[in-house]
Specification:
With about 325 residues, this protein is α/β, with parallel strands linked by helices. The protein is about 45% helix and about 10% strand. It has 2 domains: about 180 residues, Rossmann fold, CATH 3.40.50; about 120 residues, N-(1-d-carboxylethyl)-l-norvaline Dehydrogenase, domain 2, CATH 1.10.1040.10. Strand 2, helix 2 and strand 3 form a beta-alpha-beta unit.
């Protein structure tokens, strides 16, 4: 069975593209690109995942895999990427760290032609986005930081929200292609702006999930039917995506799905590091980050972020 759900693709000229990183997000995102008619070459650190992707999408014109990011990026118009963290990103863009201050060959930039664009969907730091923007510019390659919101379901449905930082011309070239897996692709400023916007997104989510956790725990202690209560208040000012999509599962104590606590702590670490640099005060975010640490301690590292309520039961 396909790993992506049906989507109506906006017609755009077929491009030769690569996708680096076939995790729970990248795998379906690359699939949408192939199904939209683009010639896609994939790379994944674990070759078996690339093989599985090619088995599923190999009927698409030009779908193939490569052994290195450099090989995948050869002659591409656009190279998309979605990996784990700053160092993973540096490895696929620049080549693996050899431990002596140098990078091994095989990074995507070494395979990209002048005038091509690298679009990074990793949730990473704004500083690494600016670093790689500068490295790409030296080779006359454009770099766009483009973290996404919408989770695994958004990737599978092709309904991600993409927040971008970089140059207008490069954005204008890449955005129509990224629409294959997105419902909105927006340029928010210069290099790093996409990552900063994603941090704003994660700050909002952290506070909302904690508030929803406290509300449900309070209502259950008070003896209310919280499924019914959520249906009522979800029609008023308290409504949120978290309430609509996680409220019932929180009431039912179900967390084996969704955006993992480990990932959220990684993201909040980026937020708090940036706040230390820019002087922003984030007392609630810092507190919720520690609440997520508590969830990790009780065995919830891979639970959905809505598992914050476990601390209150």
């Amino acid at each position: 069975m396909s790993n992506i759900n049906a989507k109506t693709y906006t017609e755009t000229a077929a491009r030769k593209v690569a996708f680096l990183g076939l995790g729970v997000m990248g795998y379906p995102m690359a699939g949408h690109l192939a199904r939209a008619g683009h010639q896609v070459t994939v790379y994944n650190r674990s070759p078996d995942k690339s093989k599985a992707w090619c088995t599923e999408f190999g009927a698409a014109a030009g779908a193939s895999s490569a052994a290195t990011p450099q090989a995948a990026a050869q002659d591409c118009d656009i190279v998309f990427c979605c990996v784990g963290n700053d160092e993973d990103l540096r490895a696929v863009v620049l080549g693996a760290d050899q431990g002596d201050g140098t990078r091994a060959s095989g990074g995507a930039l070494s395979g990209m032609r002048a005038g091509a664009t690298f679009v990074d969907h990793t949730t990473a730091s704004a500083s690494v986005a600016r670093e790689l923007f500068a490295a790409a510019a030296e080779l006359e390659v454009s770099f766009i930081d483009a973290p996404v919101s919408g989770g695994q379901a958004g990737a599978q449905n092709g309904m991600l929200t993409v927040m971008c930082g970089g140059d207008q011309a490069a954005f204008d070239s890449a955005a129509p292609v990224a629409q294959a897996f997105s419902r909105a692709v927006t340029l928010l400023g210069d290099s790093g702006a996409g990552q900063l916007a994603k941090m704003v997104n994660q700050i909002c989510i952290a506070g909302l999930v904690q508030g929803l956790s406290e509300a449900i725990a309070f209502g259950q202690r008070a003896g209310l039917d919280m499924t019914q209560v959520l249906e009522v208040i979800g029609k008023g000012a308290a409504q949120s995506w978290q309430m609509d999509n996680r409220g019932k599962t929180m009431v039912a104590d179900q967390f084996e799905f969704g955006f993992a606590v480990d990932w959220m702590r990684k993201d909040l670490g980026l937020v708090l590091d940036e706040a230390r640099r820019n002087g922003a005060r984030l007392p609630v975010t810092a507190l919720v980050d520690q609440f997520y640490a508590d969830v990790q301690q009780i065995g919830g590292a891979r639970w959905d972020t809505s598992s914050l309520i476990k601390r209150l039961r």
